[in-house]
Amino acid sequence: MTSQLLRQVRVLDPESETDRIADVLITDGRIAAIEASLPEPPANADVQDCSGCVLGPGLVDLYSHSGEPGFEDRETLDSLLHAAQAGGFTRLTLLPDTHPAIDTPASVEWLHARLRASPEPLPLLQCWGALTVGVAGQQMVELAELAESGIVGFADGRPLQNSMLLRRLLEYGQILNRPIALWCCDRELAGNGVVREGEESLRLGLPGNPAMAETAPLAALLECVATLGTPVHLMRISTARSVELLRDAKARGLPVTASTTWMHLLLNITAVQSYDPSLHLEPPLGNPADQEALCQAVQEGIIDAIAIDHSPYTYEEKTVAFAESPAGAIGLELALPLLWQQFVVSGQWSALTLWRCLSSQPARCLHQPPARLLPGVLAELTLFDPHQSWTITPQTLHSRSSNTPWLGQPVKGRVIQTWNSRLASHT
Amino acid sequence: MATAPWTRRHILSLADFQPEEYDTVLQTAASFQEVLSRRTKKVPALQGQVVANLFFEPSTRTRSSFELAAKRLSADTLNFAPGTSSLTKGETILDTAKTYLAMGTDIMVVRHREAGVPHAIAEEMDRLQSRVGVFNAGDGQHEHPSQALLDLFTLCTLLDPEKPRLSLLNGKKIAIVGDILHSRVARSNIWSLTASGAEVHLAGPPTLLPKLFADFVQTKSAALNRQLVLHWSLEPALQDADFVMTLRLQKERMTNHLLPSLREYHQRFGLTHERIKLCRPEVKVLHPGPVNRGVEISSELMDDPQISLISQQVTSGIAVRMALLYLMGSGKQKEES
């Protein structure tokens, strides 16, 4: 029997709205006790003074990209899982746009076999199954068969441009009983835009991608959902107008959940004055009013969850002109500390709001039970020290890629340990 | 002539250029203009320094102008052309810049088809703690500072050949006509001309002149904010204008649904002798080149020496680029001494 006693840790349990200081005893991978004070720990317990640290349910990544299979220079499944663990995630959800794509039961089985070979207790890796063959947006995959193969839900991670196909997927989706995640983006309207259209895009001289490239297909999709009733998750909400559409849809009772990404909450287009290709994202960073609306929507619960959308690219791929660089940035190891500093330390959000949007809410969007902090349950936990300082460098990151605008910068807040429902694992 | 000391290592954008800096460039260019009128047109100002032209986007005019300016200052020049480079062999733009740094380059003149590349190179040079100065010779749709500065010099020397200065344009009405959206020349000119206190009017069809341009110029002090005046037709922009700048229209704009046809564009926004009768009688017309004759400007107007300043712009370009290279290079010498 191995026991660990975390003394005077700040316990966050979003499900019960708990935010208090307590002693937490974890024995053999289970939460044995949560008490204001446990004066007499078991004799063999490893006692840690955790004052100032935060213990919450393990973080849940809603969608991220792997390099493997196909682009192992960017990221392998091992480096991805280590990055996720270092960032406090206990569940990681892969998008299927690998090479080959995760669009058949065989590709899902390959992934599972690949993970069984891994000796370490790492975060749970689950995957979205493709909606269309090769995530090419042309033809449905064998949806019902793929649904049985162990995928968590359906998503291409790319925008569907064929409205008829979208309609049919939503119709057919009614028998699948799996979450369907869609990203609204009209590629024709977006054109060659690489930043959100507005005054700042004109000053930057970078081609603008208009907000309507997101809002027009979003409005159309909400009409489909209203008619067909199929629940959908709306990925990568990035504009103020989208928040309004979402608010309206939820008020009407449509079965939708939504996420934005952590980068869209922390930054807006004015950061692009550096022309750092790590700030080239899809959808692009919003104008200041978009960022403000997204932060407000998270606080109000209009946006349910914060996604990481971890997108690794190599130095060579990203060391090109802003507009020519592939879109995306890494995030698994950075999201919690940077969001905590920006929103919790500043007092803009409560600690519970942030933790909920990174743990229980993404789980709910995946139709999964959220992890809890209750005596007797399996420990799926993240221990976070908001005061520890470190510097973001290729050496301190576990990811194989370091495409982030915060590279080289100091950051405050670090995950100390995660528990993955099975065994304790140290970062 | 006394000028303010030059402190800027890189010239990447005119957005934060100060009035004293414009005046320093204008006065320095005027003295080089005088040098260029001598029998021996060469000065030893940058002797021993290396100016590398890193033109990732093909260019003949601007590159030749920079090269001649550097040679007139006795600098050694290196030319990089993408067609013959190792970019196709997987080298990154920063690798290229580092190679030229290792050769002992003092000033890099950078052009790229995408915005921000000169910034990235300047940042890398600073990170490597080199003293290389980076000049933005045109990046995507972002900026083309030397073009705007030579336009400024052309206009100011016209008004006072002895003492060109920014304030000469205060209150003048200047129209910029054409494809503003895609033009780096227009953006740099908007910064310099609004800084002079000129009344800047932009004209073009809505697809090439989005109304967001009205708020393009923002300063910290609201009192100094100068709204740009936008027109979706040519006539009000030309009315009583002192100067008209017209821009090159890329012919591929039609394929992106931005214009119905070149013919309609010329009918609505092409400059002709007839149209510019609306301007002040002494009006002059500028164009950054190369010109699409019969599209943005009629051949007759372009070739009218009474009105067109196109040749003067090209000539001014040498003196202005000499001034810019000299200021960047002399700043370097001060750091070293």
Task: Give a short synopsis of this structure.
The complex is a heterodimer of chains A (427) and B (337). By secondary structure, chain A is of the alpha/beta class.
Structure description:
The complex is a heterodimer of chains A (427) and B (337). With 427 residues, chain A is an alpha/beta fold. Chain A contains 14 helices and 18 strands. Chain A has helices at residues 77-86, 105-116, 143-147, 163-172, 187-190, 199-204, 212-228, 240-251, 262-266, 288-300, 315-318, 335-345, 351-358, 360-365; strands spanning 3-13, 18-27, 30-35, 46-49, 54-57, 59-60, 89-94, 124-129, 153-155, 180-183, 195-196, 208-209, 232-235, 256-261, 305-307, 380-391, 410-420, 424-426. In chain A, strands 1, 2, 3, 4, 5, 16, 17 and 18 form an eight-stranded mixed beta sheet that branches. In chain A, a hairpin with a 4-residue loop joins β1 (3-13) and β2. In chain A, α4 runs parallel beside α7 (212-228) and α7 packs parallel to α8 (240-251). Chain A is globular and about 65 Å long. Chain A starts with a strand and ends with a strand. The relative contact order of chain A is 0.16. Mean pLDDT of chain A is 95; it is low at 423-427. By secondary structure, chain B is of the alpha/beta class. Chain B folds into two domains: 19-143 and 315-336, Rossmann fold (3-Layer(aba) Sandwich), CATH 3.40.50.1370; 146-313, Aspartate/ornithine carbamoyltransferase (Rossmann fold), CATH 3.40.50.1370. Helices cover 36% and strands 13% of the residues of chain B. Chain B has ten helices and nine strands. Chain B has helices at residues 19-36, 61-72, 93-102, 117-127, 145-159, 184-196, 235-238, 262-269, 299-302, 310-336, and strands at 50-55, 76-80, 107-112, 133-139, 173-177, 199-203, 229-231, 243-246, 284-286. In chain B, the strands form two sheets. In chain B, strands 7-6-5-8-9 form a five-stranded parallel beta sheet. In chain B, α5 packs across α10 (310-336). Chain B is globular. The mean pLDDT of chain B is 92.
